[in-house]
Amino acid sequence: MKILVCISKSPDTTAKIAFTDNNTKFATDGVQWIINPYDEWYALVKAIEIKEKDPATVIHLVTVGLADAEPVIRKALALGGDEAIRINAESQDSFYIASQIAEVARQGNYDLVFTGKETIDYNSASIGGMVAELLGLPYVSLALSFEINGTKAIIGREIEGGEETDEVEIPAVVSCQKGMAEARIPNMRGIMAARTKPLKVQEPVAADSLTSIVSFELPPAKAGVKMIPADNPGELVRILHEEVKII
Question: Which domain holds residue 129?
Answer without folding.
Answer: 2-218
